[in-house]
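Exercise 7. Given the encoded structure of a 191-residue chain, write a plausible sequence.
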């Protein structure tokens, strides 16, 4: 390992520590390969052994973006369990997202518990703050694996030990011990 690489890792570590502290993130030990983007207006808790790749050169399978954890509303709660791993993915919480222990999230995934905007065109197009959006909690239970490029939308629960195939769009609940894939995601088989 050369000196430039070592200094880069130290700098990334310092920036990430400052980012976590500035955003009042509850955490213990973590490993972030790159620089993570965090915006926390609510409550954000990271379990022990949180790991994230963040940056276009930080994941060999792609996901040419950064890792983002966004808790956008004052009363919103994002809780991530122990031994969590993710690469270059974005989690946006406007209400509540719970992620269990031993969850793996592949490159370029997006998890959103909100529609972000009103479904009514006149409200959406107005130059005023849009408060007519819908939210619903997302729950991802223990030992779930989410493949690269997956989108998980509001109101979804994914049961323990389940797998979501790469490129899927998850709009409904997934029972425990199941594999789902597709757009929209559908049941493939039991594990």
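Solution.
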């Amino acid at each position: 390992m050369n000196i430039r690489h070592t200094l880069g890792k130290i700098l990334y570590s310092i920036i990430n520590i400052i980012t976590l502290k500035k955003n009042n993130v509850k955490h213990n030990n973590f490993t972030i390969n790159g620089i993570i983007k965090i915006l926390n207006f609510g409550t954000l808790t990271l379990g022990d052994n949180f790991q994230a790749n963040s940056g276009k050169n930080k994941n060999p399978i792609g996901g040419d973006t950064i890792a983002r954890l966004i808790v956008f509303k004052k009363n919103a709660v994002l809780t991530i369990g122990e031994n969590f791993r993710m690469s270059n993915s974005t989690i946006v919480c406007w209400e509540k997202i719970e992620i269990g222990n031993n969850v793996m999230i592949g490159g370029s995934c997006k998890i959103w518990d909100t529609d972000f905007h009103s479904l009514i065109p006149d409200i959406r197009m107005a130059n005023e703050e849009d408060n007519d959006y819908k939210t619903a909690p997302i729950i991802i239970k223990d030992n779930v694996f989410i493949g690269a490029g997956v989108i998980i939308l509001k109101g979804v629960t994914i049961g323990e030990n389940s797998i979501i195939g790469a490129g899927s769009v998850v709009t409904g609940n997934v029972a425990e011990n199941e594999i789902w894939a597709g757009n929209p995601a559908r049941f493939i088989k039991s594990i």
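Remark. The chain has two helices and 19 strands. Students should compare their own answers with the one above.
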